[in-house]
Amino acid sequence: MIEMHDIWKTYPDGTVALQSVNVVIDRNEFVYIVGPSGAGKSTFMKLIYREEVPSKGQLSVNGFNIGKLKQRKIPYVRRNIGVVFQDYRLLPKLTAYENVSFAMEVIEASKRQIRRRTMEVLDLVGLKHKAGSVPAQLSGGEQQRIAIARAIVNNPSVIVADEPTGNLDPETSWGIMKLLEEIHFRGTTIVMATHNKEIVNTLRKRVIAIERGTIVRDEPRGEYGYEI
Amino acid sequence: MRFSTLVRHIREGTKNVFRNGWMSFASMGSIIVSLFILGVFMILALNVDKLASQIENQVEIRVYLQLGTEQAKIDDINRQIGRIPEVKKVTFVSKEEGLQRLKENLDPDAQSALDGYENENNPLPDAFDVEVFDPQKVADVAKQIQAINASDADQPILGVKYGQGTVEKLFKITNAVRNVGLIVVAGLAVMAMFLISTTVKMTILARRREIAIMKLVGATNSFIRWPFFVEGVLIGVFGAAVTSAILLYGYSWLIRTTQYDLGLMLIKFASMQDVGGFIAGTLLVLGALLGIWGSTVSVRKYLKV
What we know:
The structure holds 2 protein chains of 2 kinds.
Chain A lengths: L1 E9 L5 E10 L4 E5 L6 H8 L7 E6 L2 E2 L8 H5 L2 E5 L10 H11 L4 H14 L15 H13 L5 E5 L7 H16 L3 E5 L3 H6 L3 E6 L2 E6 L9
Parallel strand pairs in A: 3-8, 3-9, 6-7, 7-8
Antiparallel strand pairs in A: 1-2, 1-4, 4-5, 9-10
Chain B lengths: L2 H17 L1 H37 L3 E5 L5 H12 L4 E7 L1 H11 L21 E6 L5 H14 L5 E5 L4 H51 L4 H44 L7 H32 L2
Antiparallel strand pairs in B: 1-3, 1-4, 2-3
Helix pairs in contact in B: 1-7, 2-6, 2-7, 2-8, 6-8, 7-8
């Protein structure tokens, strides 16, 4: 599903973000990416959804060779990857419903499909009743749920979540984790970068630790392994 | 593209105009200001052109005939001049009419000086007034008339006059005025683009996040462009419509309030019919183009994510 062979990433300013990363993430895995700030977690995530390209090495996602992907093919690869951010990234002027449905308009789904599926995922994230609210009227946890609904509305095979609970209080964070578990249970691969020790140590999954751009630990059912 | 997607783009583009209320307002504002200045100068240029044409149209050729030319000959020359393609109208001015006109041009006190020159004492020759379609061609037509004379053994034409020298100078001036007008209008159009590009830069900043999110969920570039395109056209066309309305209303007011005073000075503004369609049409097309240009530039910069 996601395969990295000897991946290097050097930014134009000379910063080496990743060096010789080798990893395979299989279909329907749930993986935590942990490590100190600036270790290269975000770069690792960005490579998967092709916001960045590797400087060296072979990277394939869903069978696509990301390094050699043609510009016009990028949108089609992204449609199979749902991305969730710490800061939600909702469009402030659209309602919760529109924020989700527009991801389906992008793939030119029919009107009926859009209405049915959007309500379905809003129901799944427990916010059907807030469909008409704009982001400013929603709490942080609710906004993140809408962002997750947008990420899954097109049935992607992978969800890439970069610190999805980073801005949320512990209780709300657990709600989000329950939701991600549910989505994982329904058959979606989940790659989640996090600083949340409690979550990683309680909800045991595979843990990949990145430090100074290299993978220093990769354990099935691992622990967070850092203080804080 | 599906038809429903096209409808979606138009709907989204229209909604975006309202969603980005202030930005749309600012963009429209800069389009209105730019087009307004441009429009004022266009109206000015149209009037200068009209004035120049009015002056030019007073240029005529006067063809004098030899004294005692027979009527048959006169008719023949009349026909020959009429056959020249550039000639609009030939009017015969008999020596009697010529004297009458001369009298009318004189001061009433001085008119008596011409007493006694009537009838057989009339020293004036018969003549033709020749009007030309394009006044800039008078010199050319005058030459052709002279050629008629040369081909006739009797040499019935005494002289051809059209204000040689003065006419050439007049055309130099009117052409220069027209060119300056054109340059000013072109310069203003460029200035308008700069003014609008500043607004575009502001919208870019406001929109980059939106474009980034659209790309993230897998929108193709053309999918992203379309609503922006629709939005740009709407803002441009609406801005141009507002500008045209203001300009034309103002112009009709100007015509109404000054028609009496200026009428005395024999100056006439270009009429609403002359100006209205041209100004509104040009501004609408320009507005649409400016809107498209602005939205295209603002999107293109952030499409390469």
